[in-house]
């Protein structure tokens, strides 16, 4: 699967496909980490509305990328199996200019290098937009934090963040030199 997945910019008509991956991965990854009632109320229609607005806004300093798998059969469409978004640091006082906002891969497609390809695409996008460093905030209890450590991220900060009426601990992972990361990984 790894070699057949293509990373590219998302299109507005893919908001529903992005929403499907978003809801599926949140329910799997965050069960027991965020309030259950939030996950139950999260819908593909609601997320599709949010992603459609984001994609139609077309902010020049932000991007949404998708991981696209080839058609499953003759005449079948390509399938969005992951997505990520990035842009300027959204207000953290840390001295990092770029930020990866989201990175999710459908459960059936995890473990095949797609997350790494998406992260590389996001880093390349940030670098091409003039960002030389980057952070990502993750729930401190989220096992995905180990992925970011394997990708060279250094844990640089923690904070409490209110989410659905609860304060959850988040950890920031930083990459101080995107150019170096891209060179070392061939991105």
From TrEMBL:
Molecular functions (GO terms): acyltransferase activity, transferring groups other than amino-acyl groups
Domain N-acetyltransferase intervals: 5-179
Gene3D superfamilies per the UniProt record, alphabetical: 3.40.630.30
Pfam family, one: Acetyltransf_1
Top-level taxon of origin: Bacteria
PROSITE patterns: GNAT
Keywords annotated in UniProt: Transferase
PANTHER family listed in its UniProt record: HISTONE ACETYLTRANSFERASE, L-AMINO ACID N-ACETYLTRANSFERASE
Listed name of the protein: N-acetyltransferase
Species annotation: Ferruginivarius sediminum
């Amino acid at each position: 699967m790894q070699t057949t997945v293509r990373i590219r910019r998302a299109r507005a008509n893919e908001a529903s496909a992005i929403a499907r991956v978003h809801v599926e991965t949140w329910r799997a990854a965050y069960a027991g980490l965020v309030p259950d009632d939030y996950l139950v109320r999260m819908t593909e229609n609601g997320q599709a509305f949010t992603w459609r607005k984001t994609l139609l806004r077309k902010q020049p300093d932000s991007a949404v990328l998708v991981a696209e798998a080839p058609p499953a059969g003759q005449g079948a469409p390509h399938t969005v199996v992951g997505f990520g978004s990035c842009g300027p640091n959204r207000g953290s006082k840390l001295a990092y200019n770029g930020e990866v906002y989201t990175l999710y891969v459908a459960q059936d497609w995890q473990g095949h290098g797609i997350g790494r390809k998406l992260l590389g695409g996001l880093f390349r996008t940030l670098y091409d937009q003039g960002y030389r460093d980057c952070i990502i905030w993750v729930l401190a209890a989220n096992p995905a934090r180990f992925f970011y450590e394997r990708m060279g991220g250094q844990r640089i900060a923690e904070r409490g963040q209110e989410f659905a009426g609860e304060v959850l601990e988040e950890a920031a992972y930083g990459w101080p030199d995107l150019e170096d990361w891209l060179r070392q990984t061939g991105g």
